[in-house]
Backbone:
């Protein structure tokens, strides 16, 4: 059995192999926009935040955004490091992950449209830090963030990782508080003129457009690679 020369063998890329790399302005802007779009969409975490606001009010539920941050921090970091290491030997993995993310967003957009009339009720039990942390830890959005929205360099450079997490946190905290405030406002009857159904259906259209943009990016890359080949 012939062993290929060392230069022909693909070695796994060491984690944080380029510690000084930073995010470019355009990369940071696109990442921030993607984070905002996905974070604002309804999901298990946002539903719990709205439920907590509906039941306990904004002031008593604001601290739950800390549990949301902790859950995403652990999950995104773990998935990002795993995917960055695996992509060295599985070159098709990033494209597959983008396709899966696009399909997930498309399904989520359809569900949002169909369930627009449903909203958390005050009959739900008290939501604590542990409940929100676990729900966020298992939230499929974390894979979407790690594999698609966060740039690859964020898991190859400590500086880029800290920069990406700072931008992510700057988007997460106000959006999380907004979901708590939305629940508190609906519970207090202060949003009588705003229809949650219309808001959620508009959000589903935005999410569907984001899904299509991800799919188009994969198709464009495949076509360009085929042309080069």
Residues:
């Amino acid at each position: 059995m012939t062993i290929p020369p060392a230069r022909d063998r693909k070695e796994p890329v060491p984690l944080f192999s380029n510690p000084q790399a930073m995010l470019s302005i355009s990369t940071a802007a696109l990442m921030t926009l993607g984070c905002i779009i996905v974070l604002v969409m309804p999901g298990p975490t946002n539903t719990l935040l709205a439920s907590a606001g509906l039941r306990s009010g904004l002031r008593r539920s604001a601290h739950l955004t800390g549990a949301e941050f902790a859950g995403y921090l652990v999950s995104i970091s773990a998935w990002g490091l795993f995917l960055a290491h695996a992509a060295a030997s599985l070159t098709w993995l990033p494209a597959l992950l983008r396709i899966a993310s696009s399909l997930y967003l498309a399904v989520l957009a359809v569900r949002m449209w169909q369930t627009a009339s449903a909203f958390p009720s005050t009959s739900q039990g008290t939501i604590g830090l542990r409940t929100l942390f676990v729900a966020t830890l298992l939230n499929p959005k974390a894979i979407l963030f790690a594999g698609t929205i966060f740039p690859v360099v964020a898991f190859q450079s400590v500086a880029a990782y800290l920069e990406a997490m700072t931008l992510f946190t700057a988007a997460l905290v106000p959006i999380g508080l907004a979901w708590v405030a939305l629940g508190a406002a609906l519970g207090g009857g202060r949003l009588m003129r705003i229809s949650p159904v219309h808001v959620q259906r508009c959000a589903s259209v935005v999410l569907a457009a984001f899904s299509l943009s991800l799919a188009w990016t994969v198709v464009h890359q495949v076509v360009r690679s085929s042309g080069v080949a």
Summary: The chain has a mean pLDDT of 79.
